[in-house]
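COURSE: Structural Biology Practicum
ASSIGNMENT: Worksheet 4, Part C
STUDENT ID: 0417
INSTRUCTIONS: Below are two proteins. For each, the amino acid sequence is given first, followed by its structure token string. Answer the questions at the end about the second protein only.

PROTEIN I
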Amino acid sequence: MNKRLVIAAIASLSLWSGAAGAQSPAEQGFRDGGRAAGPAGAIVGGAVGAAVELPGDILGFVTGHPRRYDRVREDIVVGEPLPRTVHVYEIPRHHDYEYAYVNEKRVIVEPRTRKVIRVIE
């Protein structure tokens, strides 16, 4: 039964993301989650990505204020917390978000939990 549920969820998410077209956070989460944890990760990543719409000035700030990249062995996955060794930085006027540069990627995280909200490539 679990297999059927996962297959049905993947099929519906695949159709949904194709129809939505402009839902880049969901598509990004779906791809990142799928790479890291297979079908179950794709479902979780897609759901997390769809739930978060970021103000445009956040992306501009993060890409316009580069920092030193931290290196970690773990994969950076949407919905998972960053390792404690990764430095995170505040975003002025947006206290609900912080950012980090890790493993050649820019990441937006939730400050309290350090959960990755979005990966910017």
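PROTEIN II
(use this one for the questions)
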Amino acid sequence: MDYQSFDGHGVDVAVNRADDVDKKILVYIAEHPSCKVLDLGSGIGGQSVRMAEADAHVVAIDQFDFTKQFESYENDQIQFVTGDMQQLATLVPELEFSVVLCQRTIHYLRYAEAVLFLKAVRAQTTDKLFISVTGIGSLIGDVYPGKEVDIAERFCVLSDLGKDMFSIQEPVCLYSQEEFESLLQSAGWIVEECWVSAFGNIKAVCSKE
């Protein structure tokens, strides 16, 4: 299957493969069968399906309406919700999740928005957060004009070449590893592990307590 992009928000990697963060959450699910998982920025549901097949109960959220794709999976352990993930408490009111997955999504928020969002996620999570973000040292960072801008103000579009190369048309906030860990900690998360991938992206596993 070819990689797909939706409305300038990069490619949907999870449709084609599970990366190291995806695999870590599958290990968690194996150790906590029937747990409730929130998949933020789910795309068309590649990882949501894997998690449901591993016996998780998954609520997937994306701003694009992938209802038809999710219905085609015919899996009653997956629920799809269309909406802005920053309105989390409205989209899934009174729901708590054991773990949350948020891959390649949070860089579409300004830094201050990301702090507030991660605090809201923490309020509806009982255990862990599995998360990744595009690193400023990645290939995308090479075509990113905001590298020298302070993290509090860093939010801009890629160069014209970068837009075409990576199918990202929207402004983004890219992070160094230190900045990403600081973001997570500012929102109250305990960073258990944080690493940089071979592609220069930054990934973390966090706990609530």
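ANSWER KEY EXCERPT:
Q1: The chain is about 30% helix and 20% strand.
Q2: The domain at 13-207 is CATH 3.40.50.150 (Rossmann fold).
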